[in-house]
Structure formats: structure tokens, C-alpha cells
Design a protein that fits this description.
single chain; mainly beta; Ubiquitin Ligase Nedd4, Chain: W; N-terminal domain of TfIIb; 2 domains; four-stranded antiparallel β-sheet; three-stranded antiparallel β-sheet; 1 helix; binds zinc ion
């Protein structure tokens, strides 16, 4: 429930803004989260590991950045449980991180 800053009357939502029933004052609606689709972003952003590769297994994988042939890897489930897990790699040398595309 929103109240008018001027006259303290109840405000009603109208065309994206809150409008006071009594004095007609308009106030921007409170932000209700990011406008961009989070799912889209998640798909592109490679998650940053909190711990610096601690305890991660390594595999032979060529780093696209420096050509090093060993990388840490881990699995990360994206979006919903219905979708398959995605493998991420992090170069042991330059810490470049990328995801596996198939
Ligand atoms: Zn008012
Ligand atoms: Zn590298």
C-alpha cells in the first residue's frame, strides 16, 4: 500500500505510476526488480568462483587465451532442473574461465 507524500491519502496504480486519489499527485512506482530478463543474463555470464579453484579437478583442455593445456572444471546447472548441466573450465595458468559449448 502506497500513501501520498502530500496528503497521506491512499494512492492507486495508474499507467505505471501511483496516483493519489485525493490530490492527484503522481509518484513513480517502487522498483520491483530488474527489468532485464535474468534468465538471459545467466545464460551468458560465466559464474565467478568464490574460492580460487580450491579442490577442483583438472582436465586436459586447451585454454583459448594462453594455450595452456590444463584447466580446472566444474559443473553448473543453469536455469531450471530440466536442463542439462553445463561444464565450466578455468585455465590453471591465466585463470581464464569459459563454458563448454557443444
Ligand atoms: Zn495526495
Ligand atoms: Zn590460460
Amino acid at each position: 500500500m502506497e500513501f501520498c507524500p502530500d496528503c497521506k491519502s491512499i494512492m492507486i496504480p495508474k499507467q505505471g505510476v501511483m496516483v493519489c486519489r485525493k490530490c492527484g499527485r503522481k509518484v513513480q512506482k517502487k522498483e520491483s526488480g530488474p527489468m532485464v530478463s535474468r534468465t538471459n543474463q545467466l545464460d551468458r555470464v560465466v559464474p565467478v568462483l568464490e574460492e580460487v579453484s580450491a579442490g577442483l579437478p583438472t582436465t586436459r583442455m586447451r585454454c583459448p587465451e594462453c594455450g595452456n593445456d590444463t584447466a580446472y572444471w566444474w559443473l553448473r546447472q543453469l536455469r531450471s532442473a530440466d536442463e542439462s548441466e553445463v561444464r565450466f573450465f578455468r585455465c590453471t595458468k591465466c585463470s581464464n574461465t569459459w563454458r563448454e559449448y557443444d
